[in-house]
Amino acid sequence: MYGSIENINFIICFDNIVNLSLNLTSNIFEKNQALNGGALFFGNKIENNVNDALFINIENNIFKENFAENFGGAIYSNYNQLGLAISKDNQIIFNEAGIMGGGVYSPNEINKNLFNFDNSLIENNTVSSYINNYTSEPSYILLNTTLNKNKNNIITGDYFPLNFTLFDEFNNLVEDITKYYSSITFKVLMIEKNSIENDIIKDDFSNKLASYKITGNIGSFMKGKCELKNLRIFANPNTYILKFSVENYNSNIKINIDDIEIEVNRCNENQIEMHNKNILYCENPVCKLSCPVNTTATCIRYYEKDINDSKLNKFYMIFIVLKRDQKIIEDCGFIKITLFCIGILNENDAKFKFVSVKSIPTNSEIKESKSDINELEKSLVTGSQNNLKRSKSNINELAKSLVSLSHSSNALHELVKGNTLLGEKHFLNINNSLVLNEAFETKINKEKEKNNSETLSNSELSESKKSLLSNTKKNNNIDKKRRKRAIIKMFKFKEINYNKHINGMNEKNNSDIDINKYLEQNENDQWTYKCELRKYDIVFYVIELALLTIILLRGKQIMKYICIYKCTKYITYSSIIALALGPPIN
């Protein structure tokens, strides 16, 4: 046959074939329509004993834009000798079918019923706008779940999900866009391993003496997939075999799946063994709704069998060591934790004092000055009135020196008193020195007042004159030596302090540090050190306030629950106190 068959709703149909010789060369089949096979239809072959010579040649033909209402938009074949045909350089393009096989369709045995497509072009053929160039009836089913080949262990009542896929003879997934094969039912059956083969066809649910029950074991194929997600097995401990069957389909579908062997075990240690019609199943202990079982607690059974009472079952908090990988308190991250630690450290920043004190006399120097002053005081007390008058000018000069020393010592005393880094021993020595100076000034004042008092009585004067005259020469010599030595040492002490003060000033000038700007005087005239970091307090207080607010908000959410750790409560309470007494008041 040579020529063109176009737009005449005419197809070539061969049915009930006894013997066929066909030569299709350089034909165009375009825009034809039929129930099956929009351009070519090959029906069944009638078997006979005649072996006539067979010749079929399909070459250089174009099948374009043909339509079949059911199967095979261009070609439909159920002729088991079409596979012997010679074919090449054919084009099967842009054809459409209503159910399956937009280009070519054969129910089964495609190696016999269809010619070779290797040297032909088949593309852009569709079913309901989906590409479906060639297909056949569903051919076989495969298991799409990875299992243990030897034995699979489960606990009675466990889920055992399985997924299956449906393929045609072209090894294409039977997507079945039109749901033509949706009525095909796939079923999973279970029998005891040691039972007889006839037990397979028994209805497990009608057998009251059965030791097993299986649910969620029936499904259908959608887009070539059957997913039994809710497959669940209830059985007494034993070894069982899972088998498979296809229902509601007249043709043959191969199940290319080996039997699955499963071992059903007893319940876990903390599960409760329950029974339903002599079939064992397991339940997890149920506790009160207020118990955070899924987060920080675990529920423990009270009875081992047949009773699962939430009022009797106990719950325990999960031990943090055993569940250390499970988060109870959310990890805020490295940056947030670091900022929080900086805020806590800043809270006590004023406790760190750094004071540099210059020119403080040593203990030996203070002791020498103290002994000299005591000797000078004794000489003045034991001296005569004449000697007092004579040495009055010297005493005044000495008093002036001591007063200046007292003033410098008072300043030194205040500085030492405000410095917490100095030892207590230094403080006591300096304090004794100051008291000594004050006592000596008081003694001088008393001597002055004594000179202005009333004149002594004649008898007292005569007695005192005698005693004074007898000791005048000795006292004069002794007093001169003691005063001279005391004054020399006193000026030496002042010179040492002065030199140290000058050295301290030089060091201070060299380092450009003015210690006076870090000192401030309070209402009690006491000098304290002012930390330079205080000017940054407002920044740290704001950061601390933000962190405490975040902790309080998070803690408020956690406080809605029960059975939480005490430390979590304490952290929340502490944040409230810190907010009340911390940054706002500061």
Describe the overall structure.
- It contains 9 helices and 35 strands.
- With 586 residues, the chain is of the alpha/beta class.
- α3 (363-382) runs parallel beside α6 and α8 (537-558) packs antiparallel against α9.
- 33% of the residues lie in helices and 23% in strands.
- The two termini are 106 Å apart.
- It is elongated, with a radius of gyration of 57 Å.
- Strands 1-4-8-12-15 form a 5-stranded parallel beta sheet, with no helix packed on it. Strands 2-6-10-14-18 form a 5-stranded parallel beta sheet, with no helix packed on it. A 5-stranded mixed beta sheet has the order 5-9-13-16-17, with no helix packed on it.
Essential attributes:
elongated, 5-stranded parallel sheet, 35 strands, Immunoglobulin-like, 9 helices, alpha/beta, 586 residues, 5 domains
Could you write a compact summary of the structure shown?
This protein is α/β, with parallel strands linked by helices and 586 residues long. The chain has a five-stranded parallel beta sheet, with no helix packed on it. The protein has a five-stranded parallel beta sheet with strand order 2-6-10-14-18, with no helix packed on it.
